């Protein structure tokens, strides 16, 4: 009997130290998390928000469980919850210290921890970059390092093209991107931004001021705060194609004063499209205008909008003498080409300097073009848009408002896919973007299967996942619009198809709704950069019809319901192409 007792005593003596260590580690981890959470709340408080507003209070209590509305994009989640969400809201749940309040507060803290984690991870990277003295500038890079230069945010010298990658930017990546577009210099800034151009910046900075480590390459420098690490780009290796993609924009009547409209010109016999495009690219202009031996470079402006093209016959009259009688002799017509140079007159963006008094939502069903609308709004107004969610892919590509707290009011508007009474009424006004449900469902399914720029495979479309997705998401498309029509305080409804077809007029209406004024030239710049970085390219959709007759009957019933609801609000009904097919 004594022997088993002795073994038990020996085992307890050995394990008590392990238990003590685990208990101490658990308490220390909890204390550190609590301190960090308190620090984050204080930081949010100094920006004018209360501690209760630090995290979104949008969790709905169902029985004894909690439904986080940020999981509403899960295709397995029944969309009926979205329709009935307003029924779940009980005013008595706001009473402090009640069971429901405690569960809601618990949810707030969970979301606070999530946001703290994202903020903590992203804050550590610049700290590490500034804390380490990295002096590597060459290594495997193909270009020649020129030096560290000051960057004027108002008038950038390297403005031929702009790229962002806040996760994987490297010196080689920036150099290759600039070399492919025939630029001479590549400059890196903030560890993640790449600028291309043909002129060196004027002001030289101290070498130690370029101290930000590249986000995608440890040990290499990618500029600093308002500081550019500049490289001279060398020729690409043999076999690597330079991207001289010159796009024909059409035949247009020449403006009244060519020298005022266009900033650079060249007259040369035997002038070719390639010669004119290369000349304008070196001058960093996005348009090359050709007429006979004359070459002009410039931007789309009020005097030359590129809106009223004419038949190509007018521009080819010199080659086709038989058509001369059909062409007015007193007018000149020119061929217009898009050079590889990016129009950078509207690429500068920033956060609002003072908090917005009006809290505006940019609401849409997933797959309805919200990211594209954000691109247009940011470039038109010059201010970042925020997001109710955090999408690392969008943040890494330049949507810096993704990282900012969605309630900070430092962004011009906030992206959301949410519906339900409480989620809608927290906004003062909203832009409601509606897209054809057939196109929206396919776009969102592509995103879920292959990301923002990819396409779902044939195997995805023919799997059981696609019909389940349609059954779940089709009703959400309808309930999303109906909820915003019911609970939205001040709505501006715009259809994706109208925005795509009449970009400038519709974008101007959106900007006016946001209480902003922009110049006509800036809007024309947005039109010149209309696609942004998130337009799907490559193979088109499959030949077969992805929607069965049962799916069509379901979706068509929702189309008719939404159309009637819009007309009851004295709003324009759905476009004709939505009509059941």
From TrEMBL:
Keyword Oxidoreductase (UniProt): no
InterPro entries on file: P-loop_NTPase, Sialate-O-sulfotransferase, Sulfotransferase_dom, WSC_carb-bd
GO molecular function: sulfotransferase activity
The entry's keywords: Repeat
Domain of life: Eukaryota
Sequence ranges assigned to domain WSC in this UniProt record: 142-234, 245-340
One Pfam family named in its UniProt record: Sulfotransfer_1
Keyword Repeat (UniProt): yes
Similarity section: Belongs to the WSCD family.
Record-given protein name: WSC domain containing 1
């Amino acid at each position: 009997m004594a022997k088993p007792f002795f073994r038990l005593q020996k085992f307890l003596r050995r394990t008590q130290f392990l238990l003590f260590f685990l208990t101490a580690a658990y308490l220390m981890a909890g204390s550190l998390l609590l301190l960090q959470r308190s620090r984050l709340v204080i930081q949010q408080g100094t920006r004018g928000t209360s501690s209760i507003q630090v995290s979104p209070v949008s969790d709905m209590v169902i029985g004894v469980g909690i439904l986080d509305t940020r999981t509403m994009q899960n295709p397995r989640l029944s969309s009926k919850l979205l329709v009935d969400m307003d029924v779940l809201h009980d005013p008595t749940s706001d009473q402090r210290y009640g069971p429901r309040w405690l569960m809601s507060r618990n949810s707030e803290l969970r979301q606070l921890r999530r946001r703290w984690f994202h903020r903590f991870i992203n804050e550590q990277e610049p700290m590490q970059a500034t804390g380490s003295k990295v002096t590597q500038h060459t290594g495997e890079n193909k270009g020649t390092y020129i030096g560290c230069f000051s960057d004027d945010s108002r008038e950038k010298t390297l403005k031929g093209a702009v790229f962002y990658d806040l996760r994987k930017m490297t010196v080689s990546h920036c150099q290759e991107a600039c070399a492919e577009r025939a630029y001479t210099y590549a400059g890196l800034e903030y560890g993640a931004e790449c600028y291309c151009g043909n002129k060196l910046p004027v002001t030289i900075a101290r070498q130690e001021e370029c101290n930000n480590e590249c986000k995608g390459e440890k040990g290499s420098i990618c500029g600093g705060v308002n500081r550019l690490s500049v490289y001279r780009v060398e020729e690409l290796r043999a076999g690597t194609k330079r991207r001289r993609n010159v796009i024909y924009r059409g035949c247009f009547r020449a403006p009244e004063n060519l020298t005022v409209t266009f900033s650079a010109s060249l007259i040369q016999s035997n002038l070719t499209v390639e010669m004119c495009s290369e000349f304008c690219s070196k001058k960093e202009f996005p348009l090359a205008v050709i007429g006979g031996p004359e070459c002009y470079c410039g931007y789309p402006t009020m005097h030359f909008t590129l809106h009223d093209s004419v038949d190509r016959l007018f521009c080819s009259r010199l080659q086709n003498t038989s058509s001369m009688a059909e062409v007015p002799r007193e007018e000149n017509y020119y061929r217009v080409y898009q050079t590889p140079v990016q129009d950078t007159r509207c690429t500068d963006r920033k956060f609002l300097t003072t908090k917005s008094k009006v809290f505006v939502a940019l609401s849409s069903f997933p797959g309805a073009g919200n990211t594209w609308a954000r691109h247009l709004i940011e470039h038109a107004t010059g201010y970042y848009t925020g997001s109710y969610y955090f999408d690392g892919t969008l943040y890494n590509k330049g949507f810096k408002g993704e990282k900012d707290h969605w309630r900070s009011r430092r962004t011009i508007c906030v992206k959301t896919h949410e519906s339900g009474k409480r989620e809608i009424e927290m906004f003062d006004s909203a832009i409601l973007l509606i897209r054809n449900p057939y196109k929206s469902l396919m776009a969102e399914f592509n995103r879920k299967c292959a990301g923002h720029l990819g396409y779902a495979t044939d195997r995805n479309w023919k799997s059981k996942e696609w019909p389940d997705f349609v059954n779940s998401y089709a009703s959400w498309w309808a309930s999303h619009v109906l909820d915003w029509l019911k609970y939205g305080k001040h709505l501006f409804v715009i259809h994706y198809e109208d925005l795509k077809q009449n970009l400038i007029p519709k974008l101007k209406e959106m900007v006016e709704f946001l209480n902003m004024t922009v110049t006509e030239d800036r809007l024309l710049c947005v039109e010149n950069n209309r696609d942004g970085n998130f337009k799907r390219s490559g193979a088109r959709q499959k030949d077969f019809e992805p929607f069965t007759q049962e799916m069509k009957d379901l979706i068509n019933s929702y189309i008719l319901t939404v159309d009637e609801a819009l007309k009851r609000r004295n709003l324009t009904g759905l476009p004709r192409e939505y009509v059941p097919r």
